[in-house]
Amino acid sequence: MFNKKDEPNYGKVDTIIGDGTHFNGELKVEGTLRIDGKVDGNVDINGDVVIGKTGQVKADIKGNNVSVAGDVQGNITLKGKLELHSTAKIYGDIEVAKLIVNEGAVFKGQSKMINDEDNEISSYKNKKKKKIG
Known about the structure:
Blueprint: E1 15-17, E2 22-30, E3 33-35, E4 38-46, E5 48-51, E6 56-63, E7 65-68, E8 71-73, E9 76-78, E10 81-84, E11 89-91, E12 94-96, E13 98-101, E14 106-108, E15 111-113, H1 116-132
Parallel strand pairs: 1-3, 2-4, 3-5, 4-6, 5-7, 6-8, 6-9, 7-10, 8-11, 9-12, 10-13, 11-14, 12-15
């Protein structure tokens, strides 16, 4: 039904915000989250996020990898990869290790590419802050 480039798929999904569902607040999830409905607030994932064609997110997203076919208004900070499918629309800044943009996707914002060294420095700074504070 869907072309592989049009609809993201990460296999096993642990949590689903279905089409017709509206979540407002701070969303924390372990594992893979799929959003086909609406989410407003903050999304903090220890895992991956899949935003389907009908997904509408007005939130900052932090996680490992994100695959977008819907709309996102907010900043995205990832340890891994951000993939924008042909129907994706991103309005916000991104900080990722890898970026894939398929033809037709819209991205309006600033991008910063990070590498493993940046992740290690950030992790070291956070550990140092916890020991001091």
